[in-house]
Amino acid sequence: MPNYTALESNISCDPVLFLNPDADARGLLETATQRIEAARNLLNSVICLSTERVEGTDLQHFASAAHLLLQDGCDALQALGWKEGRVG
User: Fold this and answer.
1) For labelling alongside 31, which of 22, 24, 58, 77 has CA 20 to 30 A away?
2) Is residue 32 one of the residues assigned to a domain?
3) Are the C-beta atoms of 48 and 3 separated by less than 8 Å?
4) Per-residue pLDDT tens for 37-87?
5) What's the rounded Cα separation, in Å, for the pair 78 and 75?
6) Is this model's pTM higher than 0.85 or not?
């Protein structure tokens, strides 16, 4: 039975989203890569925006989405580190 770990991006006291740190290393790396690349692409779109027409809430939405993706990617990389014996 897998030992699931709650993602850091959970906002409730009773976590809803979990990561399987017992997944194979390739799966953890692919998951981390997917989320980090998605955040990179999202932030790349932000730098292409014309600041004259951007509202504060637009930037807040971009930043929030990028933060969630990066946090999930970091959680997957941390689980990969545990699997590889590199994270205490």
Assistant:
1) 58
2) yes
3) no
4) 999 999 998 888 777 777 778 888 889 999 999 999 999 999 998 877 765
5) 5
6) no
- Res 56: pLDDT: 75
List the domain range (segments joined by +) for residue 58: 5-83
Between CA 44 and CA 12 the distance in angstroms is 30
Q: Which residue has 């930043």 as its token pair?
A: 63
Q: Are 19 and 81 in contact (CB under 8 A)?
A: no
Q: What are phi and psi of 18, to 5 degrees?
A: -135, 160
In a domain, 42, yes or no: yes
Angle of helix 25-48 versus helix 56-83 axis, rounded to 10: 160
Distance, in Å, from the CA atom of 23 to the CA atom of 53, rounded to the nearest integer, reads: 44
> Contact 19/5 with Cβ under 8 angstroms?
yes
As given in the structure block, the two tokens for residue 23 are 């997944």
CA atoms of 29 and 57, how far apart (whole Å): 32
Number of domains, the chain: 1
